[in-house]
Amino acid sequence: CETQISLNVITNSFASSVYLSQNDNINFYLAGGNYNHHTGSFFDEITISALENLYTDIFFFTASGVSADV
């Protein structure tokens, strides 16, 4: 018997959003902003504003998501 789980995901990754959209049990939020072709992600002030008031139990991020300015 396969167990179905429900999962909520917040991402700024375009590739992740495409992958996540293929599973009906995953509800995801794509934090927008300026798209960076090199990293495949969205990031600027719009992204920061979208994420500021969201709270998570677990948070994963990549090194490209870290800077001295943020």
Task: Walk me through the structure.
By secondary structure, the chain is of the alpha+beta class. The protein has helices spanning 14-20, 45-52, and strands spanning 7-11, 26-30, 35-36, 41-42. Strands 1-2 form a two-stranded parallel ribbon. Strands 3-4 form a two-stranded antiparallel sheet. The longest helix is centred in the C-terminal third of the chain and has 8 residues, at 45-52. The model has no long low-confidence stretch (mean pLDDT 84).
Main attributes?
70 residues; two-stranded parallel sheet; two-stranded antiparallel sheet; 4 strands; globular
Task: Please report the total strand number as a whole number.
Answer: 4
Q: Helical percent range? A: 10-25%
Order of helices and strands: EHEEEH
Our count of helices gives 2
Distance between the termini: 45 Å
Quick one: biggest sheet? 2 strands, parallel
Strand order across the biggest sheet? 1-2
Ranges where pLDDT stays below 50 over 5 or more residues in a row are none
* Rg (C-alpha, Å): 13 Å
| SS content category | alpha+beta
Mean residue pLDDT: 84
Strand content: 15-25%
- Which of globular, elongated, flat, extended, rod-shaped describes the shape? globular
Short description:
By secondary structure, the protein is an alpha+beta fold. 21% of the residues lie in helices and 20% in strands.
Secondary-structure topology with pairs:
Layout lengths: L6 E5 L2 H7 L5 E5 L4 E2 L4 E2 L2 H8 L18
Parallel strand pairs: 1-2
Antiparallel strand pairs: 3-4
